[in-house]
Design a protein that fits this description.
The structure is a single chain. This protein has 23 helices and two strands. Among the domains are: 101 residues, Four Helix Bundle (Hemerythrin (Met), subunit A) (Up-down Bundle), CATH 1.20.120; 105 residues, Four Helix Bundle (Hemerythrin (Met), subunit A), CATH 1.20.120; 114 residues, Four Helix Bundle (Hemerythrin (Met), subunit A) (Up-down Bundle); 162 residues, Alpha-catenin/vinculin-like (Four Helix Bundle (Hemerythrin (Met), subunit A), Up-down Bundle).
Length: 726
């Protein structure tokens, strides 16, 4: 609006309509400033140390807004009594000065408000740490329950403040680090509860104390990282991150090589040689890894050798071109540049293949959680010898997964995904020993219900991280194949000012506690279904199968809707959610046709069953599409629409969970016994043999920790804003 006023062309003829429009804009600016100032003054009243500075900035903003309103008071310009009235037409510099003052004062208010937010987060962190210190020292259950209740409230407040801050961050790298730290704090809150209770129940147990101390240490590190991000502190880790990724090294190297087309003298031969040397040193992480296949290792070594040869050839032509710029030499240089870049692309592709194929095999191999199940069973039996055996196997599994994370980090493709790989590596490094100490405690006290519950919580954290790795692997593959940068291609959401010219202004409203709980529960159910669907698709041998790819795409959309319920992800408003639901429904209708095509290839009684089940998909998707397109006015109607969209999406995902294993089973049957599952990789060792009907392997949805997990989701959506849609 201010830009419109400043850029307004001074025409000799001014219609009443033009004058009224100018006056309306001026009044709107003044009104907006007045509202902004009211908030600023309220913040000043609550924060006395910055009250004076804030009030001065608010007064300046108010004065600038009033000046703009006066200069745009032009509706009565043609009346005789207004001849001496100063307006935007007679004093153009006045409006420019007022605009500058306004922007300057508004910026001051925002900077001061930002300082206050940072202070609030630091104060909240200090409260949490102080209460944690009290929790570490408690000696009775009664005292623990009382202090933990206070700790829970403080963690909720800290989660709200840091969640808002995470959404406000513009730097994707910082946003990813903040998300990782907040995830650690969320999981550790439940771990802290059970680990502390176990320690109180068994005060003389060394493994229980080690288990509890590990959780407290992890939480302190996460809290410190949040403060580092909020205060913009520089850490050594960021420098290391920039230098360790092979992908980023190859990208910079290629840019330098291609820059020779424009300037033959802008870098030295030594610089380029050093850059390639660093990249090839990092490839040793792949060639030295015990989990890299012989074929991948040989290809990487061959391409590394070829890269050195191509660089020598480039140097030769480059030096000649510097001495004599002939047409032939410049053509030779172009060929050398293309060969060098092509070689680096092939190396990049080989490294990606090595890392992702290892990850896919490992995740598939460990998806049954046999070692965790065995630890729970032998712990309840009090079999210390068996516990020792399975803890060794878990330690081996941890090393495999840590190595997988390190290799994936090299090929992650974006800084946020790289940070997610680091977070995953840290999680496996920390959670592995914690599971071992929890299992040892249970083996020493096999009849202890709290020790058993504690082990369950740590095993669940491990399983959750494995599930997250499947999503991370898919995202890394998407980036590599160009299906997304930071966003999936199907998230073609409308953007203000470009496609939304007919939309009404959106009015934010808050969800009440009951609504938050309902949305959080639906979101959790949707998340579990996406995990189940992803697990089913991974069982297919042909991952390029159109049916599988279609389902994976829909699962990704459903996952983004789950993230919406947590106040995270790319869907920021209810409009984004409704748009996503509509696309999901459209893709679901297409998937129904794909199931029919698949059924046509079958030749047994299962064909009829598949057709009857897949036909349910069409009406489900039609209902979702109608719901997403239906207009909703007001908070209640909009919430009902959000609720209906997520419920209908959940119903579709539930049906897919039934259809996928049916399809896979029918495909196996029609191939006359040829399995559609991948064979086990050669590096796998014998699995732990455990009783599948043991009580310790079963979990129910009503467990206390699941309910607490749901509460954490409720906390995440506390600040979720629902926008009314006209």
């Amino acid at each position: 609006q201010i830009t419109t006023l400043i850029n307004h062309k001074d025409k000799p003829k001014r219609s009443d309509k033009t004058l009224q429009a100018i006056q309306r804009v001026g009044q709107a600016v003044n009104l907006a400033v007045a509202r902004f100032v009211t908030v600023g003054e309220a913040i000043a009243d609550e924060n006395h140390e910055l009250k004076e500075e804030m009030n001065v900035a608010c007064i300046e903003a108010k004065r600038a807004g009033e000046t703009i309103a006066q200069l745009t008071d032009v509706a009565s310009l043609y009346h005789p009594e207004s001849d001496s009235h100063i307006t935007i037409f007679t004093d153009k510099t006045g409006i420019v000065k007022a605009a500058r003052l306004l922007l300057s004062s508004v910026t001051k208010v925002l900077v001061l408000a930002d300082r206050i937010v940072i202070k609030q987060i630091i104060t909240s962190r200090n409260k949490v740490i102080a209460t944690m210190e009290q929790l570490e020292k408690v000696s009775t259950f009664q005292e623990f329950v009382q202090i933990f209740s206070q700790f829970g409230n403080e963690m909720v407040e800290f989660a709200h403040l840091t969640g808002d801050r995470q959404n406000d961050l513009k730097d994707e790298k910082k946003k990813a680090r903040m998300a990782a730290s907040r995830a650690v704090l969320e999981k550790c809150t439940m771990m802290l509860l059970t680990a502390s209770k176990t320690c109180l129940r068994h005060p003389d147990c060394e493994s229980a104390r080690i288990n509890k101390d590990g959780v407290f240490h992890q939480m302190r590190l996460a809290l410190e990282q949040v403060i580092e991000i909020v205060t913009d502190s520089r850490s050594n880790g960021e420098t290391e991150l920039a230098s360790i990724s092979i992908y980023s090294g190859i990208k910079v190297f290629k840019n330098k090589v291609e820059g020779l087309r424009e300037n033959l003298y802008f870098l030295s031969k030594e610089n380029l040689s050093t850059m390639l040397e660093v990249i090839l040193e990092h490839t040793e992480d792949f060639t030295d890894s015990a989990y890299t296949s012989h074929e991948h290792r040989e290809h990487i070594l061959e391409l590394s050798k070829q890269a050195k040869m191509e660089l020598e050839q480039l140097f030769s032509v480059w030096m000649q071109a510097q001495n004599q710029k002939t047409k032939d030499l410049m053509e030779d240089l172009e060929v050398a540049i293309l060969k060098m870049c092509q070689c680096m692309n092939e190396l990049k592709r080989e490294l990606h293949s090595a890392a992702t194929s290892l990850a896919a095999d490992l995740l598939k191999y460990h998806t049954d959680h046999m070692v965790l199940k065995a630890l729970k069973i032998t712990g309840v039996e009090g079999n210390l010898e068996a516990i020792a055996e399975y803890t060794c196997k878990l330690a081996e599994q941890k090393e495999q997964l840590v190595e997988m994370c390190r290799l994936l980090r090299h090929v992650s493709g974006t800084e946020p995904l790289e940070i997610t790989c680091i977070h995953a590596e840290d999680t496996f490094q920390v959670t592995g020993p914690q599971i071992i100490s929890a299992a040892e405690t249970l083996a020493l006290h096999p009849s202890s219900k709290i020790a058993k519950e504690n082990l369950e919580v740590f095993c669940e954290a491990w399983e959750s991280q494995l599930s997250d790795m499947s999503t991370l692997l898919r995202e890394i593959n998407d980036v590599f194949e160009g299906r997304r940068g930071e966003k999936r291609v199907y998230l073609s959401l409308p953007r203000p000012g470009k496609h939304n010219t007919n939309l009404k202004a959106l009015k934010p409203v808050k969800l009440d506690t009951e609504e938050q709980a309902k949305i959080a529960k639906l979101g959790l159910e949707l998340h579990l279904l996406t995990c189940e669907v992803d697990s089913e698709t991974e069982k297919w041998e042909d991952q390029e199968n159109k049916l599988v790819q279609h389902v994976q795409g829909m699962s990704s959309m459903a996952y983004s809707m789950y993230l919406f319920t947590r106040g995270e992800g790319l869907l920021k408003t209810t409009q984004d959610l409704f748009h996503q639901a509509e696309i999901f429904a459209t893709e679901g209708t297409k998937l129904a046709s794909a199931f029919h095509g698949f059924a046509d290839q079958l030749h047994d009684d299962g064909k009829r069953l598949l057709l009857s089940e897949s036909e349910k998909l069409v009406p489900m998707c039609q209902q979702l599409q109608i719901t997403a397109r239906t207009s909703a006015q007001g908070k209640s109607a909009t919430f009902t629409k959000v609720d209906a969209c997520i419920q209908r999406t959940r119903n579709v995902m539930t049906l897919l969970c039934q259809l996928l294993p049916l399809c896979c089973r029918l495909l196996r049957k029609n191939r006359l016994g040829n399995t559609c599952l991948k064979p086990a990789p050669p590096w796998k060792e014998n699995r732990a043999q455990t009783s599948t009907n043991a009580r310790g392997t079963e979990r129910t949805a009503e467990r206390t920790d699941e309910m607490l997990g749901l509460k954490s989701l409720e906390n995440n959506v506390t600040n979720k804003t629902i926008l009314e849609q006209g």
